[in-house]
Amino acid sequence: MENLLKDIEKVLFNHDKIVEVSKRVAREITRDYKNSQKEPVLLCTLKGALPFMAELIKHIDIHIVMDFIDVASYHGGTTSTGSIILRKDVTMDLKGRDIIIVEDIVDTGRTLKHLISYLKQREVNSIACASLINKPSARKVEVEPEYFGIESPNEFLVGFGLDYDEKYRNLPYIGVLKPAIYEVTK
């Protein structure tokens, strides 16, 4: 990944740290659901949460079901537009199910709040969120993930699913993108 490293100002969270926090979040989910009859549906928000979801499910020690939903709010920029677009809906009936939304990052909170409202219309039993990154300093609406791996400073992050204009998702770490990269395209 040396070719892409030149675009990164600093690496905040290396791969080992991401695996460590994914295991912790998985233990918390296992703890909360293991003595219940609930079989949670892990609902991965595409595309960003896919690497976290892949790491997370390897460490959850209960039965789970998975589905995917694709929503967008950045539309190629570095800040949320506030406009949430549903690109791909879930494929299963969620009525009466216990949902854990798997997010890459909760920053403004708008996407998560929108998803919670959308899923409530599906008559789900419960909704929780597991996010790799929590960025409360960027919050615009009141919403918090029940499970999160890392609290992040308010910087523009890429890597391990997080992108800028669909790029950098494949980095095995999370870093701060050099402003010169996205200021050139403004």
TrEMBL record:
Keywords in alphabetical order: Cytoplasm, Glycosyltransferase, Magnesium, Metal-binding, Nucleotide-binding, Purine salvage, Transferase
InterPro entries: HGPRT, Hxn_phspho_trans, PRTase-like, PRTase_dom
Phosphoribosyltransferase domain segment(s): 13-164
GO molecular function, a single term: glycosyltransferase activity
Compartment(s) where it occurs, according to its Swiss-Prot or TrEMBL record: Cytoplasm
Subcellular location, principal: cytoplasm
Gene3D superfamilies per record: 3.40.50.2020
Family: Belongs to the purine/pyrimidine phosphoribosyltransferase family.
Role according to the record: Purine salvage pathway enzyme that catalyzes the transfer of the ribosyl-5-phosphate group from 5-phospho-alpha-D-ribose 1-diphosphate (PRPP) to the N9 position of the 6-oxopurines hypoxanthine and guanine to form the corresponding ribonucleotides IMP (inosine 5'-monophosphate) and GMP (guanosine 5'-monophosphate), with the release of PPi.
Assigned EC number: 2.4.2.8
Name of the protein in its database record: Hypoxanthine phosphoribosyltransferase
Cofactor(s) recorded in Swiss-Prot or TrEMBL: Mg(2+)
Reactions it catalyzes: GMP + diphosphate = guanine + 5-phospho-alpha-D-ribose 1-diphosphate; IMP + diphosphate = hypoxanthine + 5-phospho-alpha-D-ribose 1-diphosphate
Pathway, per record: Purine metabolism; GMP biosynthesis via salvage pathway; GMP from guanine: step 1/1; Purine metabolism; IMP biosynthesis via salvage pathway; IMP from hypoxanthine: step 1/1
Annotated organism of origin: Gemelliphila asaccharolytica
